[in-house]
Amino acid sequence: MRRFGILFLFPAAALLLAACSSLPPIRPGEGLSLERTRQECRLPFLREETRLIHSLQAVLPDGSGTSAIGITVADPAAKTLRLTLMTLEGFVLFTARIEGENLEIERAVAPFTNKDFARSLIGDVMFCLFPPGALPETVGLEEGNRPACRYRSDEDTATDVVLAGPAQWEVRLYREGSLTRTLRAAGLNEYDIPKKLELTGHGPFPYRLTLTLLTGTPLRLESRPESLTEEEEDAP
Amino acid sequence: MKFDNLRGVTRHKRRFAAAAPLIAAALALILAGWADSWDAIRREAGQIRTIHARFVQRKHLPILAKPFVSEGRFSFQAPGSVRWEYTKPVRSVLLIHKGSVKRYTKGDGEWVPDAGGQLQGMQMVMEEISAWTQGRFDTDPRFTARLEGGRPARVVLVPKDPSLANLIARIEITFSPEKRGAIRSVKIVEGKDAWTMLEFTRAEHNLPLAERLFINPGEAAP
């Protein structure tokens, strides 16, 4: 029985090694610059509950494009996210909230009615906004000699954050050794929220999503007016 | 002195009494408005061949701390050409002309055409707006139309089909009390906490509009 167990472990270990070996190497570094890199790797991600409004331009697998407005309230500590997508004309296409693994779709028109599509969309938004982990597994220099951090969520999933230049980051998501998503973040607003995000989905159905920040403010700093009722808006 | 005052008041009263019917008649003329019946609306709107106006769109949603505000320009040419252009915060334009509907978004300095997934729905909305600008409020079989007189007068459209009512609870179109044939605002109510308010300003009727305004996304509005 034990021998069977060892036999089982061989392919598992081989798979794990294959997965690890296909990740581009990060040469571990040391010293003060290491701590600075570790801090800068966290910069393109949210640090507290924030409300964001983006304009979105998507290039779909067939090469066509579409645009929309995305409104997000995201809390990286609680891992909760509320998302509304609407057309530029204000027609709501999709409203959902996710708390942990629970996805609740409040309103959806096709193709957002498909729960897998909706979950994948929210997964992409979370990848763009939430830090990949508390502490990086490796901090050092990547192949192009740029400072980088590698975070690992589980055996099969690794996220590299590369400091690509002043106020520029490249975030790469690997699953089972294959690059599945690349995020480029550039510029920071007054609350250290990236002004532009460009997400590329790799694989058999490649796509590109560009998010341009219109507003982004931590909830604790918002001056929220008393909510207006319909009747009040009608009043002259 | 007191007596003089009293006599003055009495004199004013008498003058007012004489002038009252004239004031009432004038008020009635002012308050009657041009939009008190379907026929009157159609008659006034029927005079309109083109419209050019600015608009401000305020979107209210529970997820927003304050309304999301967009601004733009609207051009219409009878029978059904529409240019619906946003100038802030995202530049985009929807063009409807001779049965075709296209949307472009300005990205990196050039106009990028949209895939068209959402355009069918938008075509329906814009066709509605075209019909309203022609005074045809009570002809769409999907809605029950109610005209509420007063100043300003307004039309309330309520979907008949429950599946459409899930998306739009009602639409309220308010007429301009000052400008005959003009719509002042359109409010699209999706639910208790979700609605869109469109307010039109600087409306000009029957300006000559070039056809290319409804074809070229980069065409400058008059």
Describe this entry's structure for a reader.
The complex is a heterodimer of chains A (236) and B (222). Chain A has a 13-stranded antiparallel sheet, with helices on one face. The longest helix of chain A is centred in the first third of the chain and has 20 residues, at 2-21. Helix content of chain A is 21%, strand content 44%. Chain A is α+β, with helices and mostly antiparallel strands and 236 residues long. The radius of gyration of chain A is 20 Å and the shape is globular. The model of chain A is unreliable at 1-21 (pLDDT under 50). Chain A has one domain (24-214): outer membrane lipoprotein receptor (LolB), chain A (Clam), CATH 2.50.20. Chain A starts with a helix and ends with a helix. Chain B has 222 residues and is of the alpha+beta class. Chain B has two domains: 1-32; 38-92 and 122-209, outer membrane lipoprotein receptor (LolB), chain A (Clam). Chain B has an eleven-stranded antiparallel sheet. In chain B, strand 1 (50-60) and strand 2 (68-77) form a beta hairpin. The radius of gyration of chain B is 22 Å and the shape is globular. The interface between A and B is large, with 33 and 39 residues.
